[in-house]
Amino acid sequence: MKYMNRDKFTLFAAGWESGRREKAVKDMGVDVFVEPDREKMIEWIKSKKIDIVHFYRRGEPDPDLINTFVSAGVPILIEHNCFAMFDDTDDRFKINKHLVCSKASVEIYKLRSGSLYDSDKVIDIYCPTETKEFNSYNFTRNWDAPVFGRHSRSLAAARKLPGPWFF
């Protein structure tokens, strides 16, 4: 959301529950709607005339989420499939694109979907990492030494995440 062209796109964020990213999204000037009631969410989506929804999920079936978008009349659904799982329900036909996090994830998705794999609908897009903040940490770096890092949430943090958030 931070880098979207606001001349081309009007951005909204919504979710069933609030989460730790809500303040940061609001600070970017994005209209945020948090509502656990599915019917109210449908009405909000309709009122905003949202025509593209980009949502995050594990890739497993989530009929409440998909049916919310379909019921609101959203014509373009883009799934950011975080774990390259394959949804073998009819909901897969309602999703226009499946974004996965790496070329390896494409191969995993391909294996999981088997003969149902549709190469026109699956693309890899790496998750961006904001490195600017790293410079604010006070530690000594040895740029000649190999580095091993982890780019993910801790298990404790992951268990606390509300979901799904969609945009």
Structure commentary:
With 167 residues, the protein is an alpha/beta fold. 26% of the residues lie in helices and 17% in strands. It contains 5 helices and 7 strands; from the N terminus they run βαβαβαββαβαβ. The protein has a 4-stranded parallel beta sheet with strand order 3-4-5-6. It has a 3-stranded mixed beta sheet with strand order 2-1-7. Strand 1 (12-15), helix 1 (22-27) and strand 2 form a beta-alpha-beta unit. The longest helix is centred in the first third of the chain and has 11 residues, at 38-48. The protein is globular.
Give descriptors for this structure.
single chain, 167 residues, alpha/beta, four-stranded parallel β-sheet, three-stranded mixed β-sheet, 5 helices, 26% helix, disordered C terminus
Strand order of the main beta sheet, please? 3-4-5-6
Q: How many separate helices?
A: 5
Helix fraction, binned, reads 25-40%
Which structural class best describes the helix and strand composition?
Answer: alpha/beta
Shape: globular
State the major sheet.
Answer: 4 strands, parallel
List the helices and strands and how they pair.
Elements: E1 12-15, H1 22-27, E2 31-34, H2 38-48, E3 52-57, H3 63-71, E4 76-81, E5 97-100, H4 103-113, E6 122-124, H5 155-160, E7 165-166
Parallel strand pairs: 1-2, 3-4, 4-5, 5-6
Antiparallel strand pairs: 1-7
Helix pairs in contact: 2-3
